[in-house]
Design a protein that fits this description.
By secondary structure, the chain is an alpha+beta fold. It is built from 6 helices and 5 strands, in the order H-E-H-E-E-E-E-H-H-H-H.
Length: 190
């Protein structure tokens, strides 16, 4: 989730839609304003467990915008403090992180937390798989329309794997690379 440029935020708001954007160094002035003036008004807590880790998140929102520079449609400041415990080889490694977001939404902390988690679900199920498992970031293809054709092929592949009930995309890719018989079964070719 990247910070959306100010002009794009204005277009989003003018089209009667909403945004949530992450604050990083790309908007250093706004980031400093939010970090220095953030006073939690409402907070919710989330815990998720799986894949050998436990993550605790505290999602706080602030709708008082005193000391914050003008930003199109801005209604809510969001702070997420997370603590991740990873269990490997009988050792617990703990990392903490604080992230800030801005939003045009006027929802409560729980609703905003669910929206942000929903975004990461898409990031993990689609973008990560395309970038890492399918090697899209390492692709040397730069010629139009080949870039679009290969993106379409990657999406088609993911949909085909999911239609055939694969949950692990790298495992599906490995299995399908073993031979033509597996591919024939997926495409239902005799």
């Amino acid at each position: 989730m990247l910070l959306i440029p100010k002009k794009t935020c204005q277009l989003i708001v003018e089209s009667e839609n909403n945004y949530i954007g992450a604050l990083k160094g790309n908007q250093s002035g706004l980031f400093k304003d939010v970090k220095n003036n953030f006073i939690p008004e409402f907070t919710c807590h989330q815990i998720s467990k799986g894949h050998g880790r436990v993550e605790k998140r505290q999602v706080s929102i602030c709708q008082t915008l005193d000391g914050i520079r003008s930003w199109s449609g801005l209604n809510t400041l969001i702070q997420i403090k997370s603590e991740r415990q990873v269990f490997t080889h009988n050792v617990i490694e703990v990392t903490t992180q604080t992230r800030y977001y801005i939003s045009s939404l006027s929802e409560n902390a729980q609703e905003i937390a669910e929206r942000i988690r929903g975004y990461w679900g898409v990031e993990n199920k689609v973008h990560y798989v395309r970038d890492v498992t399918q090697g899209e970031n390492g692709s040397r293809i730069r010629t139009t329309p080949l870039t679009q054709i290969f993106a379409l092929a990657r999406n088609f592949t993911l949909n085909l794997y999911r239609t055939n009930m694969f949950e692990n995309m790298s495992q599906a890719q490995r299995l399908c690379s073993f031979g033509l018989d597996t591919l024939k079964q997926l495409f239902r070719i005799k």
